[in-house]
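Entry under discussion copied across for reference:
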Amino acid sequence: MYYVYVLRSVEFGRFYVGLTDNVERRLKEHNSGKTSSTRFYAPRILLFVEKFDTRPEAREREKYLKAGSGKEFIKRYYLGL
């Protein structure tokens, strides 16, 4: 199984989209500063997770959520903006 996840910075409100096979481990890595792209915006909370059977399916969804229309989707349905 593969998961596409969205994290939100508690302090700054910024969000991050990623792909993994272990969401718990990945969240710990983000919050401990092991990931350079999210190091300065910790702590982060898990906003939502989507599950996929294959990595290519998950990668397509991740690419969509990182694009402009995907960011708008996150803002509208999960952030209420």
The chain has one domain: 2-77. The beta strands are 2-9, 15-20, 44-52. The mean pLDDT is 89.
